[in-house]
Amino acid sequence: MRASTLFVALVAAAAGCTYGPEEQVASVSQIVRLGDSFHALVVVQHDTYRRPAGLNTFPDGGRWKYVQRGAAQYLIDARALEVVPLARQPAPENVWESFSAWIVGLDGDSVAYLRLTGCPRGGQCYPLLQESVAYRLSARGELRPIESVPPSTGLPGQMAARRPGEQNYVRFSTQRDTVMARFVEDGLAEALFVARTDGTLSPVER
């Protein structure tokens, strides 16, 4: 009698530890302008996840169960409203938790250096546990893993005012899943591109 009662209790507990249906989300995590132009590199991060339900929500709401994670890079032309897909990376197992992808350096306008960071899948994640993976990305979309990012590379500084000698004024910003830009110093930013939940980037419908 006790064994059957225990069995029923275990089954009930397991049934209570559930997750909701799969959902997708994407966000524009970074925009890097290329020189004195209307072109920029855009990084989009995207996840497929399931929200905790039942007993999995205790004691603090629970943790999302990530089914897929990844990032994608695009080349955009803000004036022509054109998008060129460059590369996509599924999140490696060693940087799955707190996964993020960033462009950390440029070599002219033809090469970008990308770094993926996070912690091994299934564990806790804090700075001492973080790992990283680096890539070299060409303007033609060629992605090659590298051991480390060259220390001499970096990203251009940002300023709202027009730079001396600047011919093509544009200032980019992000609003969750949207690439924003303004073409006049004191003008309002307008929505140009939007990231779909599958990680693709496309012009905003007008």
Summarize the structure.
With 206 residues, the chain is mostly beta strands. Helix content is 7%, strand content 51%.
Walkthrough of the structure:
With 206 residues, this protein is mainly β. It has one domain. The chain is built from 1 helix and 12 strands; from the N terminus they run αββββββββββββ. The N and C termini lie far apart (68 Å). About 5% of the residues have low confidence.
Mean pLDDT rating:
89
What is the global morphology? globular
Question: What is the number of strand segments?
Answer: 12
- The number of helical elements comes to 1
Sheet bearing the most strands, described?
A: 4 strands, antiparallel
Q: Return residue spans where pLDDT drops below 50 for at least 5 consecutive residues.
A: 6-15
Structural domain count: 1
Distance from first to last alpha carbon: 68 Å
Sequence of secondary-structure elements? HEEEEEEEEEEEE
Structural class: mainly beta
User: Which percent band covers the strand fraction?
Assistant: over 45%
Helix content: under 10%
Q: What's the gyration radius in Å? A: 21 Å
Strand order of the largest sheet: 1-2-3-4
